[in-house]
Specification:
The structure is a single chain. The chain has about 375 residues and is an alpha+beta fold. The protein contains 10 helices and 18 strands. The chain is globular. The termini are close together.
């Protein structure tokens, strides 16, 4: 009987410790620390965009970045030049987090985004710091070009990563994450388009409802992307206790035929607004869009119409990174079990149980 009681306690303790496992806040990027936490890239655009990325000092001086509001209402503004006609490219910013990550739950609270404007290519994403793209992987959480109205979520990897169309609400456009996959366009990766017309997931329609929260859960098993418009953000997120188990089906789930840990590691958070380049400015894309009626090429339109980009800005309330772990420190041994479950237990009884556990009587 003594052994049964002790095993019951240990089993109960194990269950309690499992229940305690939750996501705890690891990093919070808000107006108070945002620009200090990111590196400003000022080199040539890797995607051949018609853009000039500015360093922190230049971006601040020229009004490309700012903090809007104060206190709890403060938000991070990142815009583009909307006043000049520069033949070298439109001024913008591209930033990368100083910290890199391996797994996590990433919450992006976006009030306004630069999408649905001809010539634009905005995105926020996770990119490996390996310097040998796509080694280490890339997770595009939010991305689109020109007048696109629905968000596209994509993975870019080395060979050996595939996805299946199951357990998510989005629409698969390409299933092979390898950037050199046969039968797919160059660098396309595996892409999932947000369900058309089911939410305000990108660009002007997202801005019209005050934005929302994108959540990306990255584990060894899979990578999932959820989106919640401003009026539908779960209470567990607003309370700082995110619980993905309550969120229902994700918009995208990258799993099935991919060893996640083999393909993704050491990822930094990136925001940028590019113009034209390999996607937005590709002739096959530009010529098939309504933007073609505004100018023969993307570059011509972006260079000669600065006023069109006044609303091509980010307004970011916060970016928060949670790590899966225990909200309380518990070793899960018998001593903890007695202390937590039966604090009123007389310790002499506990000692007696321990002695009985080592005697032959327990076999009776």
């Amino acid at each position: 009987m003594a052994r049964l009681n002790l095993l019951t306690v240990l089993t109960t303790t194990s269950l309690i410790n499992t229940a305690l496992a939750a996501y705890s806040l690891a990093d919070s990027y808000t107006a108070s620390n945002f620009f200090d936490s990111f590196i400003f890239f000022d080199g040539k655009d890797p995607t051949n965009g018609f853009v000039q990325y500015k360093d922190l000092k230049t971006a601040a001086k020229s009004g490309l970045i700012a903090i809007e509001g104060s206190g709890d209402n403060a938000a991070v503004y990142m815009g583009v030049d909307h006043k000049t006609k520069d033949p070298a490219g439109r001024a913008s910013v591209r930033i990368s987090s100083k910290k890199s990550y391996n797994h996590g739950l990433f919450l992006f609270d976006i009030e306004h985004n630069p999408g649905s404007i001809c010539g634009t290519w905005p995105a926020f994403w996770l990119l490996s710091d390996s310097g040998k793209w796509p080694v280490g992987g890339e997770i595009d959480i939010f991305e689109g070009v020109n007048e696109q109205s629905d968000n596209k979520m994509t993975l870019h990897t080395t060979p050996g990563c595939l996805i299946k169309n199951t357990d998510f609400s989005g629409e698969v456009e390409t299933a092979n994450c390898d950037v050199h996959a046969p039968g797919q366009g160059a660098n396309m990766g595996c892409g999932i388009l947000y369900p058309k017309g089911k939410a305000h997931s990108y660009g002007k329609s997202m801005n019209a409802v005050g934005g929302g929260v994108y959540a990306t859960m990255w584990t060894s098993q899979d990578i999932r992307v959820y989106y919640f418009p401003r009026s539908s953000i779960p209470k567990d997120i607003t309370m700082g206790k995110p619980d993905p188990a309550k969120w229902g089906m994700p918009a995208a789930k990258f799993a099935a035929g991919c060893n996640i840990d083999q393909h993704f590691s050491g990822l930094n958070i990136i925001f940028n607004t590019a113009f034209c380049g390999d996607w937005a400015g590709d002739a096959s894309v530009w010529d098939k869009s309504r933007c073609k009626a505004k100018a023969p090429t993307c570059k011509e339109y972006v260079q000669n119409n600065p006023e069109a980009f006044k609303d091509a800005y980010w307004m970011i309330r916060s970016v928060k990174v949670y790590q899966e772990g225990k909200t309380m420190s518990r070793r899960g041994d018998a001593g903890d079990a007695f202390a937590q479950i039966m604090p009123e237990m007389d310790m002499s009884l506990a000692e007696e149980m321990s002695r009985n556990d080592n005697s032959s009587n327990v076999l009776d």
